[in-house]
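re: that chain from earlier
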Amino acid sequence: MSDVTGLEDFHERDHEGNFQPRSNRDPRKEFLRAVANKVLDKPDMGREDTYATIAAFWNAYLHGIGVDGDICLEDYDVALMMDLFKTARLTSNPHHEDSWLDKAGYIVGGHEKAVTNYPTPMETTNE
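^ sequence. v structure.
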């Protein structure tokens, strides 16, 4: 079974083994606590250069298959794309709690990469 650190404190397993919120608790608070437990209990989660390394591999692959050279993925792009991967997985099983936790972890890691490695905010529009 995958790591679901903190989730057991706020959920119980149903007859299929999936985590379900306990009826006497606020599911939003439970989820945020579980995310905090998962992310904060792993101090190196997202902080090592893994995202940058993955971005370099993906860039090499894309350029190797002839994708336009203007594309250059950054470390935060890896977090966003992994979030999309988890989103696709959840479309087939929206009750898989660990995928929800992983999505949140990628967002936390991506945010950290964006604000740490790119301190100047990108120009945005109000469209």
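The beta strands are 11-13, 19-21.
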